[in-house]
Amino acid sequence: MFGKHKPVVPPPQPVAIVRYEQNFDNLGHYSKDQIGNSRHRLNVYKQQLHLSAKQKEIGLGVMLGDASLQTQDNGKTFRLKFEGGNRNKEYIQHLHNEFDDWCLSDITAKIRTHPKTGTQKNH
Question: pLDDT truncated to tens, each residue of the chain (123 aa)?
Fold first, then answer.
């Protein structure tokens, strides 16, 4: 046992720690017409959106009136939904224009059928 040496263990080498951070500022900016079907582009587009003071006031006002706040993923994200009949077409168009960057689709008309009479109305 006297003639054997302990194996020499080299000291540990420093390890570079790499952190991954997603920085949307470096990914570029997209306009609505560039999103297409790309989930990545949609996420980048959403990250660059910010409500203006005017949009916040309008949003609060319409939520107190005739708009609704809806979620489809248990409160992770929300949408502000405006609805109105043909009488309010100009008003709905005005709201759509005020939130143009946030609206990824055009205004759509709905045909509603009265449950008792069966009469139909465009909304």
Answer: 556 666 666 665 554 444 444 444 444 567 777 788 888 888 888 888 888 999 999 989 988 988 888 888 998 888 888 887 778 889 889 999 999 888 888 888 778 788 888 887 776
**Beta pairing partners, 122:** 111
**Does residue 115 lie in a domain region?**
no
Residue 82 backbone dihedrals phi, psi, to 5 degrees = -105, 135
* Structural domain ending residue among the three candidates 49, 67, 93: 49
Q: How many domains does the chain have?
A: 2
Domain that holds residue 43: 15-49
Q: Does 44 share its domain with 58?
A: no
Per DSSP, helices labelled H in the chain are 32-35, 39-47, 53-64, 89-98
- Tell me how far the alpha carbon of residue 109 is from its chain's centroid: 23
Asked if residue 116 belongs to a domain, the reply is: no
- Cβ neighbours around 99 below 10 Å, total: 16
Residue 106 to residue 102: CA distance in whole angstroms = 11
